[in-house]
Amino acid sequence: FFDGLAVQPADALLGLIGLYRADTRPGKIDLGVGVFRDDFGHTPVMRAVKAAEAMLLRDQETKSYLGAEGDVRFAELLAEVAFGAGPDRLAGVQTPGGTGALRLGAELITRSRPGATVWIGTPTWPNHAPIFRDAGLAIQTHRFFDVASAAVDFDGMIEDLGEARAGDVLLLHGCCHNPTGAGFTGAQWLEIGRLCAARGLLPFIDLAYQGLGDGLEADAAAMRGLMDALPEAVIAYSCDKNFGLYRERVGALWVQSEASELVRGNLLALARSLWSMPPDHGAAVVRLVLEYAALRADWTAELDAMRARINGLRAALAASHARLAAIGGQRGMFALLPLGPEAVEALRREHGIYMAGNGRINIAGLTLDTIPAFVAGVAPYLS
Ligand code: PMP
Question: What are its GO biological-process terms (predicted)?
Answer without folding.
Answer: L-phenylalanine biosynthetic process from chorismate via phenylpyruvate
